Amino acid sequence: MEFKHVSVLLNECIEALDIKGNGIYVDCTLGGAGHSSHIVSHLSKDGMLIGIDQDNDALKAAKERLKDFENVKYVHNNFYNIESILNELDIDKVDGILADLGVSSYQLDEASRGFSYMKDAPLDMRMDRDNDFSAYEIINNYSEDEIAKIIKNYGEERFAKRIANFIVNRRTEKPIETTFELVDIIKAAIPAKMRRDGPHPAKRTFQAIRIEVNSELKILNKTIEDGVNKLNKGGRMAIITFHSLEDRIVKLKFRELENPCTCPREFPICACGKVPIVKVISKKGIAPTENEIEENPRSRSAKLRIIEKL
Predict the structure, then answer these.
(1) pLDDT digits (tens, 9 = 90+) for 76-119
(2) What contacts 134, CB < 8 A, 6 or more positions away?
(3) Same domain for 222 and 86?
(4) What is the domain range of residue 271?
(5) Cα 128–133–138 angle (5° rounding)?
(6) What's the whole-model pTM score?
């Protein structure tokens, strides 16, 4: 199956990065190189793009798409390690960092990956298939309390406790092995009248389990801090989020870097000595246009936030 992923907020991202021809840019989530193909087309032969992805299928597709460009370095890794990745490449500072935190259309549509509640597949959800830990382990080995906590915290699912209880009861009969088995359990756990309106009943639970499998939220704060440390003065970081949990983490971390002062409010002047490291370029977060949402419904929940290193 072809690795396809429609780039969300493409023009907004290119504008956000304020690309210099001879600059060094990092795409933390290379995917099918949608954003990257536009970044690299703005670079001169002295510029460089570093594309990171933990999915080998994505890297393969990106190499094919960018085969005409010689100034691209490909890294099979998690962007959590951005600092050590750049150190290993002997790169001290970069001019821009982009991260698109969405699951690619390819991963959702490739049934065997187990990301989708609309396709039957083994319970997997690993973005990096070299990892042993998958959705199967969570569903079959985590305690009822742990499962409930994940679904509540990462999925913001009001029936989290009940779903966890149904999962644990069902797995006493036999291991839960496929996405559709899990979907049936979730549907059974959510009262019928609640299933009739709104999104697919399994949407929130699947989101939560995917986040846990790939440690998506745990890695964000460190990535932002390490990335900002590696930015040149005037360099920019742009992050696209797709749900409120991610967006909240990014917004709060950006705000903290812009205003790191820890002094009590009643202090007339700052005594902690912490100075702003960045300035927030997008106070509200940039959403897709109506046109984009119409062309690509998956972009509906996207939000872009941008900071500039001081």
Answers:
(1) 999 999 999 999 999 999 999 999 998 766 677 687 888 889 99
(2) 114, 123, 124, 125, 126, 213
(3) yes
(4) 10-101+216-309
(5) 125
(6) 0.84
The pLDDT tens digits of the residues spanning 255-274 come to 999 999 888 888 888 888 88
Final residue of a structural domain among 187, 213, 239: 213
Residue 273 falls inside a structural domain? yes
Of 249, 166, 177, the closest CA to residue 201 belongs to 166
Residues in the chain: 310
pLDDT at res. 2: 53
* pLDDT on residue 64: 95
Does a structural domain hold residue 5?
no
Rounded distance between C-alpha atoms, residue 49 and residue 40, angstroms: 6
Query: How many CB atoms neighbour CB 42 within 10 A?
Result: 15
Residues 95 and 223 in one domain: yes
88 and 119 fall within a common domain? no
Residue where a domain stops, chosen among 175, 197, 213: 213
Tell me the per-residue pLDDT of 195-239, one tens digit each, with 9 for 90 and over.
887 789 999 999 999 999 998 888 899 999 999 999 999 999 999
Longest dimension (CA), the chain: 65
Q: In the chain, how many domains are there? A: 2
Residues 300 and 288 in one domain: yes
Tell me, yes or no, whether 223 lies in a domain. yes
**Encoding tokens for residue 269?**
């002047």
- In this structure, are residues 299 and 235 in contact, taking their beta carbons and an 8 Å threshold? no
Pick from 73, 112, 76: which is nearest to 91 by CA? 73
- State the residue for tokens 């790169």: 91
